[in-house]
Recover the amino acids of this structure.
């Protein structure tokens, strides 16, 4: 029994790292720009479909197209911020919300129009392989996805820590007026930030496509999931997003196994309510 | 209401009465389909007013009003299906149930200083939590849904809200008018002014002696109660309830669109928004069908684009702009 529980926990942990990467994108956007990206899950599912289409047409492994897809998402994010979202910076939350809900509606129904409502699986040759580690069996694809998620998150972390642009973005998050006073090009930095946030989402969507079947219906659930993780982990904390993702991944896996799969997100929402009330800054609450 | 009515220019009064007369007489010429569209217009006007009280007046963003809608709908329909208790009694049980949920969320949020987006997420979390709960609640049919009889004696006579489109048409029109009058009266009441003060600057409001917490709780009480009544209408009009539909976040979003598009914190915003948005969606479906196209996503894509355009160009909503151009706004002193 203990071995099964351990297995479930580890599977949840691996999935949770991919969730964490998705939430990291939201955390970066929200933490720096204070924009409520309510189209986050929708972009994730677009990433899943991008991986699916490349797999179906060119037969390439999603792990190989991870970086190209992330790069494309960076470009999309950069342009979106420059054109559509920038006028909404600093405007009321409900206005940003309506804009992004509109965008989310267009995205998810665009997918519905093109691909239909059915789930689209990616069947990799190693889809059912697993590693035996002691008493555990680890799905090969989950291990790959989790490792890739950590790699992308680490790259992002290093970027924010050690590059000039990364430091400048952190300055914007810390003190917007101060950043503008010392001459930082806030508009460009915001565009880069949104691009990076979407690059995370593109990467997370690509990885998600290997462990879950792409379907337009997933989008809204992923948006809520990303918000839940970010709040639990602590807004603006990059480590917090990953930890939150792992926590949610494990709690969903345990609830899905021991109670009922359909009730698994109930525990995530309960956790969200408890964290909001008791520790609204999140577990790792700290500015970026 | 009186003040607002007397301050309205003559052409505004004439236009309001004309609109009212058109709506009252519409069933004479309108076919079933047109009536169903108008019922939706009134329904969204009503719910828009309810949500607008909390967000537009008291300044608290709720993205979980589907919770009160669903609780109202489920309470009244379950009482009717399981115990034969009619909706006119059921509604007075549905209101306290939804209001209790609303007050609990409000208490939790505002006592623990959960503001803005965080409060919105709290409301979503409760609505989603309840949706999954009802998905597993066997007594109301769980995910399989709760159904009201459609035909025969079991459907109920008209006084138990079993009837044809005319019944629902005038019921929804009555709800929309009642809500408009209620909101207009509240807007002019001392409580209404307290809400505006709290919305604009909670700290300053507190400093002049307004009990901010109490003002917000009252807004939540009225808003969730009104939404519950809308839920009772929803349940008896559609005659089937699924947790995945009535508690869905999509419900919460669709009921806030009319007041935001029409104009947040205004009395006519929810009306104008509902009149613009509902026929827009329905009209597009009609055009698509007449062109022989059957693409399920197109209507929603158009809807999404409309939202993006309106919020980009008219962030304060269509009504303030419209009122200015038709010179319907009250003269400035």
């Amino acid at each position: 029994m203990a071995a099964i529980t351990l297995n479930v926990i580890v599977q949840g942990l691996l999935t949770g790292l991919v969730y964490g990467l998705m939430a990291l994108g939201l955390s970066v956007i929200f933490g720096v720009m204070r924009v409520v990206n309510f189209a986050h899950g929708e972009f994730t599912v677009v990433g899943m479909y991008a991986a699916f289409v490349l797999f179906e047409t060119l037969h390439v492994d999603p792990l190989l197209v991870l970086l190209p897809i992330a790069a494309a998402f960076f470009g999309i994010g950069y342009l979106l911020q420059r054109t559509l979202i920038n006028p909404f910076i600093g405007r009321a939350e409900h206005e940003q919300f309506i804009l992004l809900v509109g965008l989310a509606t267009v995205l998810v129904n665009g997918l519905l129009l093109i691909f239909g409502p059915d789930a689209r699986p990616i069947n990799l040759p190693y889809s059912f392989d697993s590693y035996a580690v002691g008493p555990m069996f680890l799905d090969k694809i989950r291990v790959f996805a989790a490792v890739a998620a950590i790699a992308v998150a680490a790259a992002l972390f290093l970027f924010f820590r050690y590059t000039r642009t990364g430091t400048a973005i952190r300055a914007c998050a810390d003190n917007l007026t101060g950043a503008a006073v010392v001459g930082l090009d806030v508009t460009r930095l915001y565009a880069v930030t949104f691009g990076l946030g979407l690059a995370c989402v593109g990467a997370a969507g690509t990885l998600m496509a290997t462990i879950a079947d792409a379907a337009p219906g997933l989008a809204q659930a992923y948006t809520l999931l990303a918000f839940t993780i970010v709040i639990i982990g602590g807004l603006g904390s990059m480590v917090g997003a990953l930890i939150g993702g792992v926590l949610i991944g494990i709690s969903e896996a345990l609830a899905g196994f021991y109670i009922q799969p359909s009730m698994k997100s109930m525990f995530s929402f309960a956790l969200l309510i408890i964290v909001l009330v008791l520790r609204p800054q999140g577990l790792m609450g700290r500015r970026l | 209401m009186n003040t607002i009515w007397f301050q309205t220019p003559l052409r505004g009064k004439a236009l309001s009465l004309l609109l009212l007369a058109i709506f009252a007489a519409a069933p004479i010429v309108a076919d079933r389909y047109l009536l169903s569209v108008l019922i939706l217009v009134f329904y969204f006007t009503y719910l828009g007013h309810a949500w607008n009280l909390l967000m537009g007046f008291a300044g608290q963003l709720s993205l979980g009003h589907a919770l009160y809608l669903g609780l109202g709908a489920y309470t009244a329909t379950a009482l009717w299906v399981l115990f034969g208790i009619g909706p006119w009694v059921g509604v007075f049980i549905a209101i306290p149930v939804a209001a209790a949920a609303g007050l609990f969320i409000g208490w939790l949020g505002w006592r623990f200083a959960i503001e803005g987006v965080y409060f919105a997420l709290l409301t979503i979390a409760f609505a989603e939590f309840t949706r999954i709960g009802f998905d597993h609640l066997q007594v109301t049919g769980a995910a399989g849904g709760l159904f009201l009889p459609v035909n025969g004696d079991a459907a109920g006579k008209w006084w138990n809200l079993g009837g044809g489109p005319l019944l629902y048409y005038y019921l929804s029109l009555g709800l929309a008018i009642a809500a408009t009058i209620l909101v207009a009266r509240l807007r002019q009441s001392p409580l209404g002014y307290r809400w505006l003060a709290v919305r604009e600057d909670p700290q300053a409001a507190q400093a002049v002696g307004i009990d901010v917490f109490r003002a917000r709780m009252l807004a939540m009480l009225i808003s969730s109660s009104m939404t519950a009544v809308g839920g009772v209408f929803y349940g008896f009009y559609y005659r089937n309830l699924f947790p995945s539909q009535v508690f869905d976040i999509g419900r919460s979003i669709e009921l806030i669109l009319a007041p935001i598009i029409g104009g947040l914190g205004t009395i006519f915003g929810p009306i104008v928004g509902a009149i613009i948005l509902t026929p827009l969606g329905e009209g597009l479906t009609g055009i698509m069908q007449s062109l022989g196209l059957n693409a399920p996503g197109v209507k929603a894509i158009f809807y999404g684009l409309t939202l993006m355009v309106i919020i980009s160009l008219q962030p304060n909503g269509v009504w303030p702009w419209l009122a200015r151009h038709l010179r319907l706004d009250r003269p400035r002193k």
Notes: The longest strand of chain A covers residues 130-133.
